[in-house]
Amino acid sequence: MTKKAVDIVLLPEEKITDKAIELNSQLVKRFGPRLVLNKKKCLPHISLAMGCIDDRDIPVILQVLEKTVKVNHPGLLEIIDIEAQTNAAGETVLLFKVKKTNELQSLHEEVMQNMHPFFKHTVSDDMLFDHQVELSTLIWIKDYREKSSFSHFSPHITLGYGEIEISTPRLKFNAETLAVCHLGNHCTCKDILASVPL
Question: Which CATH number goes with the domain that contains 92?
Fold first, then answer.
């Protein structure tokens, strides 16, 4: 049995993934390669729930998620803003703000409730894909239920560290996949452990 820190996420369709990677590359050029998005080991995503599981529970978790999305589909999604936020370390992080629709909020709440029995552990370095991680990463995962879920849920796609002046692309899109991802440093999605097509 291995304990893993995971993110239950929506993976957007390719046009949004490509746009996020394009903007991330601009941030990397100006502010350095601390967070480099790509389509293999650092996936642009919308987080729905974070916690630490036993990997032997993954098959059951997948069954639960399959049932969840049959009743709670995220529907059509929309990027409504580009926003700069400050993380626990006081650093600026740029993100796509995604419109919080009733369908998306409902899916988030159902996933949080249904995953609660599986989120059994307090996060530690060895549970992440990258075993050396920054404190802000551990704080974000540990505090997710209290500070980032239910009434505090703020759907977004992280673009990277730093801030650049760009106009907001108001884009409507679909999520292609609901995935269980192994978390890495900076709460990146490093590895898909299980997935449900939408």
Answer: 3.90.1140.10
Signed CA dihedral, 168, 12, 192, 110: sign only:
positive
How many domains is the chain built from?
1
Predicted confidence band of residue 62 (pLDDT cuts 50, 70, 90): very high
Structure confidence by residue, pLDDT tens digits, 78-130 = 999 999 999 878 899 999 999 999 999 999 999 999 999 999 999 999 999 99
Helices (H) and strands (E) in the chain, counts: 5, 8
Q: Can you tell me which residue has the tokens 């059509």?
A: 76
Which residue range(s) make up the domain with 54?
3-197
Provide mean pLDDT across the span 141-153: 97
What pLDDT is attached to residue 190?
Answer: 97
- Position 84, amino acid: A
Please check whether residue 153 is in contact with residue 106, taking contact to mean a CB–CB distance below 8 angstroms.
no
Distance CA 44, CA 10 (A): 9
Mean pLDDT across 12-33: 97
DSSP 80-140: EEEEEEE-TTS-EEEEEEEP--HHHHHHHHHHHHHHGGG--S---GGGSSSSS--HHHHHH
C-alpha span between 94 and 79 (Å, rounded): 13
